[in-house]
Design goal:
The protein starts with a strand and ends with a strand. The protein is built from two helices and nine strands, in the order βββββββαβαβ. The protein has one domain. By secondary structure, the chain is of the alpha+beta class. The chain is 16% helix and 49% strand.
Length: 118
């Protein structure tokens, strides 16, 4: 699935008490998020609005202003069937991109599967 999304990201969101990356494509009315509570080992993947599932591992790459996410078939079946997401991130430069990278690092802390490139 291809999305063009605005993004909010935090290595620790005070309101939700977790690390999160929330992407929203206004045109498709579709959201994608990754989150992880500090005391949990699993990453929660959410799509649409409140269809979610927790996983031990997944593959995420941030290259420039594009976030690529690969899901295995089992995880995709628990969500909405898509095994890959290409998310064009709108307006994330400088400090906003740093916040996104920090949030992704926190979500993937102690895990493989994250790749960050300029």
């Amino acid at each position: 699935m291809h999305l063009n999304a605005t993004v909010s990201a935090s290595a620790f969101d005070e309101h939700y008490q977790m690390a999160l990356v929330y992407c929203f494509d206004r045109e498709k009315n579709y959201c994608f998020s990754l989150s992880r509570f500090p005391e949990e080992d699993e990453i929660e993947v959410m799509v649409l609005d409140q269809i979610n599932h927790k996983v031990a591992n997944l593959s995420v790459e941030l290259r420039g202003s594009t976030l690529n996410v690969a899901l295995d078939n089992s995880l995709a079946a628990h969500l909405d069937g898509h095994t890959s997401y290409t998310i064009g991130i709108l307006g994330v430069e400088g400090p906003e991109r740093d916040h996104l990278c920090d949030a992704l690092r926190k979500i993937f802390e102690g895990k493989d599967g994250l790749r960050l490139e300029d």
